[in-house]
Amino acid sequence: MGTEEAKLLYRERAATAEYVNALARHRGLIQLRVRGKNKARCVLLLHALAHNLMRTFALVPELLGHSCVRRYGEFSIGH
After folding, report:
1. C-alpha dihedral sign at 23, 32, 10, 58
2. Which residues, at least 6 apart from 77, have a Cβ–Cβ distance to it below 8 Å?
């Protein structure tokens, strides 16, 4: 980790992978409540699917050119 390139790679990893891990913990993935490799894998895949869906819903308005503003518990969609 002495080179600038290694520091840059570590900084990028911290901004992506560690953020996802923190979100998973915030959403309740602190301890697996199942036993066995297959069941644990299923739980982790469900969390990954939920994360990907939430990111997709957050990015879709931007990709479509719409702005979605949340006000007072409602979404107002502008063009």
Report:
1. negative
2. 61, 66, 67, 68
pLDDT at 9 over 50: yes
Burial of 25-38, coded b for 16+ CB within 10 Å and e otherwise, reads: eeeebeeeeeeeee
Domain boundaries, the chain: 4-78
Whether 71 has a pLDDT exceeding 70, the answer reads: no
C-beta of residue 13 within 8 angstroms of C-beta of residue 1: no
Residue type, 16: T
- 3-state SS assignment for residue 53: helix
pTM reported for the whole predicted model: 0.58
User: 27-62: per-residue pLDDT in tens?
Assistant: 888 898 999 999 999 999 999 999 888 888 888 877
